Amino acid sequence: ILTAFALSIFYILRQKKISEMKSDFINNMTHEFKTPIATISVATDSITNDKVVREPERIKYFAGMIKKENARMNQQVEDILTIARLDRKDFEFNWETIDVHELIEDAIQGIRIQVEKRKGKIDTRFQAANSVVTTDKNHCTNLVFNLLDNAIKYSGEAPEITVSTMNKNNGVLISVEDKGIGMSKNVQAKIFEKFYRQSSGNVHNVKGFGLGLSYIKAIVEANHGSISVKSEPKKGSKFDVFLPFVME
């Protein structure tokens, strides 16, 4: 009887967890689509501004932003399929030589307008003398973009984000640091788990910590790199991603 009772409790809890995972999946995917939609909305409003209409170069800039974000939305559809391969580590990579600094600039360009709208800023400190690694451009760009997106979501009204690089142990160390709400040690130990999301406090009201960081970790591991986080509540967070020059 005790064994049957214990098994019943086990399966009930597991079913509850599966239900929560489904909910988190839907919430996270909704957020992934809302991010480019928000950027497109801001760019569209900017184009219709009377001051911008008289400046062809600015119109061209915002039109390019809309085109870029539309392409990113299409990529999100592919990411949904990619997430299904997380457990199997069954990723398709197009390995090529990439300049990490150029890749970071591209990712920042795609999200800068959201930061500027909130009167925030993104600073870059590129200290890596050798910034060329072998990786997949699309996946690695998504990696940086997701870290920047998290930094914005978990910051205050005016996000202050710093992206820096340096050479370390035959590779490049990419750091994304914010001055947001931070995380407790307990949360830090779980954020890279698939579907994990803090269930209380301010973080609960922000969509995230579901699939994004799990995806990032899988990409880093596929590159034979590493990822770590340093954070304190109310003092911000710093994510360090190490990518080797050449995978061994």
Your description of this structure?
The protein contains 7 helices and 7 strands. It has helices spanning 2-47, 50-53, 56-83, 100-117, 137-153, 185-188, 212-222; strands spanning 95-99, 121-126, 132-136, 160-167, 171-178, 226-232, 236-244. Residues 199-205 have low confidence and may be disordered. Helix 1 (2-47) runs antiparallel to helix 3 (56-83) and helix 1 crosses helix 4.
Q: Give me the strand/helix succession.
A: HHHEHEEHEEHHEE
Shape by Cα distribution: globular
Q: Quote the beta fraction.
A: 15-25%
- Stretches where pLDDT is under 50 for at least 5 consecutive residues are 199-205
Give the N-to-C terminal Cα separation. Answer: 54 Å
Report the average pLDDT across residues.
83
Determine the oligomeric state from the structure: single chain
Compute the CA-based radius of gyration. Answer: 20 Å
Reading side by side through the largest sheet, how are the strands ordered?
A: 2-4-5-7-6
Going by helix content, strand content and strand pairing, the class is alpha+beta
- β-strand number: 7
Largest sheet: 5 strands, mixed
Number of helices: 7
Q: Helical proportion?
A: 40-55%
